């Protein structure tokens, strides 16, 4: 039986795009997921293309890695100290001599500290061991507007966060997945770190103007204070840790930590990255 790729985080935003592109390329893979039935339905997969997998359950590792020689590592979202969850899996890969890994990190992560320093910790952890690693550091996703702000945009006419007046190069998750496919299936990417951004810098004020055009309605960015942001999340029923997590993340935009562009996407896939307006038009059906 030929070796295949294990895709963790397969039902998430990046995971779905990656699975779709591997299917189109007829690459042999298996989707690791906590809910196999959901993955089969959501991703249109056959039973033998899914396996039960959970980073917190070491008993799930062995079966998930049968006939696997490459792994895409994408940890669960909104998890403080994520490195504590991922390290046992990485150690298991090392023990099994599965050393080809592509790790989904984040653009600007080196500026985060404390219980949000997990990407920097995991990048170092992989580099210090016998892995043929590729690290992907995507910028903020263009799809976040639809995935996380749809109700705000459509019902309230706002995009709401604490990014201040900072700018960021929003990136299309489809482009991130294309880079991941290349890193997983072609030689020449071991030991590389790719910073993945879109082609243009936008503030959330700029994004609101684009959204106004795409949605054909006035969208504004009220640029709330941290206190206003916390209050709005709490009023909406979100637990307190969401604000504790997201304020430093958006703070990377506010303080200019992610306010620059790279040409890594074009360098890997041979095409310029997709611009924000194209993604918004695709997501909102224009």
Automatic annotation (TrEMBL):
CDD domains: TMR_SDR_a. Residues 9-187 form the NAD(P)-binding domain. InterPro entries: Ergot_Alk_Oxidoreductase (IPR051604), NAD(P)-bd_dom (IPR016040), NAD(P)-bd_dom_sf (IPR036291). Gene3D superfamilies: NAD(P)-binding Rossmann-like Domain, UDP-galactose 4-epimerase, domain 1. This is SDR family oxidoreductase. The lineage of its organism: Bacteria, Pseudomonadati, Bacteroidota, Flavobacteriia, Flavobacteriales.
């Amino acid at each position: 039986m030929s070796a295949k790729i294990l895709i963790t985080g397969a039902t998430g935003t990046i995971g779905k795009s990656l699975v779709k592109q591997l299917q189109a390329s007829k690459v042999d893979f298996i989707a690791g997921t906590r809910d196999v039935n959901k993955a089969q339905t959501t991703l249109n997969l056959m039973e033998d293309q899914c396996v039960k997998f959970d980073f917190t359950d070491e008993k799930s590792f062995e079966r998930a890695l049968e006939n696997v020689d490459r792994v895409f590592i994408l940890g669960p979202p909104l998890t403080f100290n994520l490195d504590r969850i991922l390290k046992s899996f990485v150690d298991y890969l090392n023990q099994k001599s599965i050393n080809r890994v592509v790790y989904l990190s984040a653009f600007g992560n080196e500026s985060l500290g404390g219980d949000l320093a997990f990407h920097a910790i995991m990048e170092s952890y992989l580099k210090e061991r016998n892995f043929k690693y590729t690290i992907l550091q995507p910028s903020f996703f263009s799809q976040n507007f639809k995935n996380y702000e749809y109700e705000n945009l459509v019902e309230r006419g706002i995009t709401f966060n604490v990014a201040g007046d900072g700018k960021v190069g929003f990136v299309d998750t489809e482009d991130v997945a294309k880079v991941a496919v290349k890193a997983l299936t072609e030689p020449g990417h071991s030991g590389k770190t790719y910073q993945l951004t879109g082609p243009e810098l936008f503030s959330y004020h700029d994004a609101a103007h684009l959204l106004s055009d795409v949605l054909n309605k006035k969208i504004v960015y009220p640029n709330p204070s941290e206190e206003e942001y916390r209050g709005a999340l709490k009023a909406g029923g979100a637990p307190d840790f969401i604000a504790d997590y997201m304020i430093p993340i958006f703070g990377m935009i506010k303080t200019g930590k992610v306010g620059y562009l790279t040409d890594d996407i074009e360098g890997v896939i041979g095409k310029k990255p997709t611009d924000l307006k194209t993604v918004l038009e695709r997501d909102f059906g224009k």
